Amino acid sequence: MKKYLMMMCISLLFASISYGQHPEYKENQKCADCHKDCQIENIVMTDKKKEKAFVDKAFMQFDGTFGEKHCYNSCHISTCVDCHKGTGKNISKPKTDDCLVCHKDTYTGIEYMGLGIREDHERYKRGIEKDGEYYLKMLPSVHYEKGMQCSDCHTKNNILGKEKAKDCLECHTYNKDIIDHSIKGHDKVACISCHASYSPMELGTFYLRYRESSYAEYVKELPQISDEYFKSSFMRVNERPPLVIDNETGKYVPAKPSKIIFTTNTYKDLVVGQENKMIANRWKVTYPHTVRRETVLCSSCHDNERAFLLESDENRILYPDKDGLAVKSFYNSENFSIENARFVTRKEYEKINSKSKEYLQKYFEKLDQLKEVINKSVPEKK
């Protein structure tokens, strides 16, 4: 009898722990009773393990409670109806606007409809407003113009982590009659590397902590994310992302800052520890949702060090090191690490930059083609 009671207590304990970890379990279970292939507990949009591990490691010495205050209870979805709006039989398939509630700012998504990020300061709170944020007007993706929804490429199985999003070549053909497609070596370049018109990027994210400090008055125009914290950035841009080499495919793909984080901890009127301490320096592969039929020109890659995160000192425009940061250039990979890819080497860049006979031939063909387009667009004089 004692053994039976012991087992029952243990079972109840584990049950209470399970429900404590997933307070929305009952709500999701109602959906899962019928939709047995759509359990959401362990998919990327609900599982916070990677984020929690990163935050715990990066912020531990700075503020051991940072994750609990700002991340763990707000990141990602928790219930089916976070994406599937409505009730009963009126539950809907997620629309693009539903996705963009979370996929905004520098997270891939909002640029799809032609909205570019703005700087942090209060004076930039103007322009196009969506879900409480302000944006610049940019070119939307050609897919958005055609009325495509996120779910047209990001299928149910993709969201559930069972398969990848649709590839370009599942819908499009690689036409080698197009000059850019006919160039030897361009088969090593992912479609998105040329067809993405821009990517929203934050070059350096700052978390500024003020405790019992009058200095907080000087940053009051910045976004305040909690009682003690303000958030800022070195610079926020909407520009063509640099290229790196994907570990899985070996192709040149776009990349953007993932977690380049600096922290300052101010208590009363003194900085505790190092000011603007760099606690994370990661880039990651990105697939900007800014696809256009028109592509970049040859000079966007050739003769362009920044396009491969190889900017030299003499070509620098920004000087973050002179602002006290442990970074010489946000466009030079020597300062950073990267997830799921590797940076292009100087030797590889020099090979790309060599002006072979074929390169020059294709270059002039491209110029002739460009002249034709310009001539057709200019009305004839009568």
Provide structural commentary:
By secondary structure, the protein is an alpha+beta fold. It has a domain at 168-377. Helices cover 25% and strands 18% of the residues. It contains 11 helices and 11 strands. The protein has helices spanning 2-21, 25-32, 49-59, 66-70, 96-99, 142-145, 156-159, 179-182, 191-195, 346-353, 357-377, and strands at 115-116, 128-130, 133-137, 199-211, 229-239, 243-246, 252-267, 270-271, 277-285, 337-339, 341-342. Strands 4, 5, 6, 7, 8, 9, 10 and 11 form an 8-stranded mixed β-sheet that branches. A 3-stranded antiparallel β-sheet has the order 1-3-2, with no helix packed on it. The longest helix has 21 residues, at 357-377.
Using brief descriptors, characterize the structure shown.
eight-stranded mixed β-sheet, signal, Cytochrome c3 family protein, Multiheme_Cytochr_ET, globular, alpha+beta, 11 helices, disordered N terminus, Multihaem_cyt_sf
Cα radius of gyration in angstroms: 25 Å
Q: Report, as a whole number of angstroms, the end-to-end distance.
A: 105 Å
Structural class category: alpha+beta
Q: What is the string of SSEs from the N terminus onward?
A: HHHHHEEEHHHHEEEEEEEEHH
Determine the strand fraction and express it as a percent band.
15-25%
Shape: globular
Q: Helical region count?
A: 11
Low-confidence stretches: 1-22
Helix content: 10-25%
What's this model, at a glance?
Helix content is 25%, strand content 18%. It is of the alpha+beta class. It has a domain at 168-377.
